[in-house]
Amino acid sequence: MAGVLFLPVTAFAAQDNLKEARAAFDRKDYEAAVRLLNTVNADAGGPLYELRAIAQAYRGHPEEALADLDHLEGKAPAHILRRISLGLLTHLLSHEQDMVRGAATVALAEFGPSGAQEALTKCLADPSPRVRTFAIQTAGRLKLAGALPLVRQATEDRDPAVRIAAFSTLGQSGDPSVVPILRRGLNDQDQIVQLVSREALAKLKQPGFTEAIAQASRDYNPSVRGAAIGILGRLKDSASFSILTLALHDPDAGVRSFAAGALGDLGSPSAIPALQEALTDEDPYVRNFAAGSLGRLNAKSAIASLWEAVKDSDSLVRLSAAEALVRMGEGQAALVFRELLRDANYGVRSAAVGAMARTAPAKAVAFALEALDDPAARVRVAAVQALGRVGGKNAVPYLRRALLDKDLTVRAFAAGHLGAVSTDQKEKA
């Protein structure tokens, strides 16, 4: 009789453990949940593997999570992969390195507002100014900035970079209720913060702030001049055209770079001759921004000049010129991207992957797959981002592979994009 009674008792115990595991999971005790689930007989099937896969992700164990997912033999709904991805990101948000937490914070934006808000709230209170800055920017991308009290409170953060992000993001929110908060920035101790608060107020249709920004473009401090020039371009005020073109001759190369970029933001074709001239500036950053702006302005009259810039001594200038040419239909310029994928500078290689994804998406998947084996994590991150943005459902196997990358920042972006491709497009931000 003892042998007859043993199996049912064991089965009941296993079912009790499954219930206890669910309760442990609900109270976010993922270690206990996995320990209990490991005692449940495999005959429990889907409920066992689904719950354990998600719990393993929250523990930061993507290998085990994907192994349990594969036990479902292709029958797993997409939302399980999404929950695994969110679980891994949530785990990475508690990592000791702020670079890893920062990558996870940026990757949260891929989930859309319905999936990221709880984790994002944690990021906004992170001890690292870098992470708080990224969190504010992510809130802006998800159209949540105006609704999150911590973003409003960040306008009083002790770190000026965080305050800048908060004022800028709130200005883009379109929420008129933030105007009184933005006005506090006019008296900030940091001059750049003051400028950004004026930009934010101008974007919310508050009158009288553009003139003060234009005045700052003549400040003795080149950092202030550069910030003001950049803002005038973003505000797209045609009255600023002469200020921006004059700034192309500023003695400071940083200010000239801001001016070259701002003229592209302004969107006026009248800037094309001045930007063509800037392609010969002694500073490579100025030439780089000038080439990018000519591409955004669809400056077909500058095609010959851009082909000359493709031969520039600076790799990033060559890349910007090639991207501008591809934007204007000069498809053969994409060959420059492949050349630069072998550049000694990993920053250039990562930029080449991003340029291909932006301008030649049909070719970008194969290009990104090649970059997934790059020795530099930053290049692999760029490859993951390209696959997530242009690869669609076909990118899932490669993003799963990247989820196991030795570098945690690569894992973070892979999780973000897996969450995005596993989501109905209507749910995405």
In terms of topology, how is this protein built?
Elements (H helix, E strand, L loop, with lengths): L1 H25 L3 H8 L8 H13 L3 H9 L7 H15 L5 H10 L5 H12 L4 H13 L7 H5 L6 H12 L7 H6 L6 H13 L6 H7 L5 H14 L5 H7 L5 H14 L5 H7 L5 H13 L6 H7 L5 H13 L7 H6 L5 H14 L1 H11 L5 H14 L5 H7 L5 H14 L8
Structural write-up:
Helices cover 67% and strands 0% of the residues. It has 429 residues and is an all-alpha fold. It has a domain at 1-76. Helix 3 (46-58) packs parallel to helix 5. The chain is globular and about 75 Å long. Mean pLDDT is 92; it is low at 1-9 and 425-429.
Brief account:
With 429 residues, this protein is mainly alpha-helical.
Features of the shown structure:
mainly alpha, 429 residues, 26 helices, single chain, 0% strand
Structural class: mainly alpha
Poorly predicted regions are 1-9, 425-429
- Tell me how many strands there are: 0
What is the mean predicted local confidence, pLDDT? 92
What Rg do the Cα atoms give?
25 Å
